[in-house]
Amino acid sequence: MKYVWHVFLLVFTVAALSAFAGVKDGDCLDCHGDNTLTKTNAGGKVTSLFVDYAKFKLSAHRTNACISCHADITAKHPDDNKLVARVNCATCHERQAETFNASVHGIALRAGHDDAATCQDCHDSHKIISDNSPSSPLYFTRQADTCGVCHRKEAHEWAASVHGKAVAAGSHDAPTCTGCHAEHQIRSLKNTGSMTVSAEVCSRCHSSERINSRYNLPADRVKTFFESYHGLAGQYGSTVAANCASCHGWHKVLPSSDTNSTINAAHLVQTCGQCHPGTGTNFALGKIHVASDGQAAGADWGSRLNRLVRQVYMVLIVVTISGMALHNGILFVRKTAARLRATARPVLRMSASQRWQHFTLATSFILLAISGFALRFPDSWLAKGLGSYEPFRRWLHRIAGIVLLAVGAYHLVYILLTKDGRKLVCDLFPVKKDLADVWLAVGYLCGFQKHKPQIGRFGYAEKMEYWAVVWGTILMGATGLMIWLKLDVTRFLPRWAIEVATTIHYYEAVLACLAIVVWHFYHVVFDPDVYPLNTACLDGKISEEFQQHEHPLEDRKQQ
């Protein structure tokens, strides 16, 4: 209703102004109704000033008066000898005019090129009708004729192309002038980035499953191009890499079977030679659209041989590397076990209960990380590794979360009801000495101190990690349950609370995973004193030497 009211006011205002000015349509038609009325500009160009009022009354502007568009006309016209100003379509079509002003036509007009196309050149001056009407100059079968008034060569080439022939046959899906160059913001694709044509123009149709299926077109043309050297080079910033039009042409796009096509075998040397001087026949006959599975776009012997070689190598790689990995994996386990047997490790570092809690925590955390990031990035290799069944990834994540919360609850009972548990949490509780140890450690790491800080059962590193796990488990558990039970949660909380919980859950997961890799893995795997693994997590034991080196202040008599 708002826009209807605006239109009513506009028509009313125009009518009032017309009556006030004394200029009526009939006054204009006294002269412009003569089909012989013309004008000649300084360059000798003759322009008809005839207005077919019958056609105007069939146009979209039929409710407008002449002065609705020609607002500068007064009753003194034409005796005042003033040139009629260019019609300002932006008065009613502000958004379209703004877009047009950014086009090559609009820029040319502002630069003083009066021969550049205006709104009237494309839409007509008085018989303005919907471009869905076959009589419209912008109807899909007439666009080339309209644009061809200025762009004759391009229109002729397009008409001879597969696109032009498809449009002539009545296909609405085939690209027309505005299909590639846009409707109002007409752009010159020759001056755009190397990949713009391929990524934004050709891909719109040739990556469409509907169009490829309907017209029996190859479904992989866009994908295989972007996987080729040209496509990859363009994606990584090359401004000279070939795009679709570099090989297929801009307007006269023809199939390779056509002898006039730039990709016909007879013309490939010339086409490739534009970028590769000295191109020979064998080079030019190479395949561009080669599928990722090694099947070239064609059934020639070279393509078949290439695919066979790929398959042989895939089998060879899997068998060879798997055998090497199995051999070295078994050797690693046996050598590590032999070294552990040869080393006396009488000091009990972790009890059986603590080891099982650690194992359950670690397993559930790893499953949560893998399934969580697979859910967040469904196109990643993690997601593909878990299969294409999204409910499986979702329930794996939920079950792992339940296990993590369960082991957290068990640990709470453990530290409250058992002697070992109470001793564990007391030893892990931060004390004033930890701050001094951090300061000493900084001095030691920077080379200002000769000796690292002496610690007891647990130092600042273990305490930081323990309480970070406690905090992370509570936070991830709470936000995870909110996301899982969002329908129930939103009965009491606003919907944005779920969005905030999702953000916290994701970024806390990123923080936790990075902390485990950078901090925990160093202390239990990559530290030269324990590499390849601190086996206390397996049997709970460490050597006397390691105990004295890492925990010299621990009072083991109280354990």
Number of helical segments? 29
How far apart the termini lie comes to 82 Å
**CATH-defined fold name of the domain at 345-558:** Fumarate Reductase Cytochrome B subunit
CATH architectural name of the domain at 345-558? Up-down Bundle
- CATH class annotation of the domain at 345-558: Mainly Alpha
Overall geometry: elongated
Structure commentary:
Among the domains are: 303-342; 345-558, Up-down Bundle (Fumarate Reductase Cytochrome B subunit), CATH 1.20.950. The protein is an all-alpha fold and 559 residues long. A two-stranded antiparallel ribbon has the order 1-2. Strands 3-4 form a two-stranded antiparallel ribbon. Helix content is 58%, strand content 2%. A hairpin with a 5-residue loop joins β1 (38-40) and β2. Residues 17-21 have low confidence and may be disordered. It is built from 29 helices and 4 strands.
Spell out the blueprint of helices and strands.
Layout: H1 2-21, H2 25-32, E1 38-40, E2 46-48, H3 53-56, H4 66-69, H5 94-101, H6 104-110, H7 119-123, H8 143-148, H9 152-160, H10 162-168, H11 177-181, H12 196-206, H13 209-214, H14 221-227, H15 229-235, H16 244-248, H17 268-273, H18 281-284, H19 301-342, E3 347-348, H20 352-376, H21 381-385, H22 390-417, H23 419-428, H24 432-445, H25 460-484, H26 486-489, H27 495-526, H28 536-539, E4 541-542, H29 544-550
Antiparallel strand pairs: 1-2, 3-4
Helix pairs in contact: 9-10, 14-15, 20-22, 22-23, 22-25, 25-27
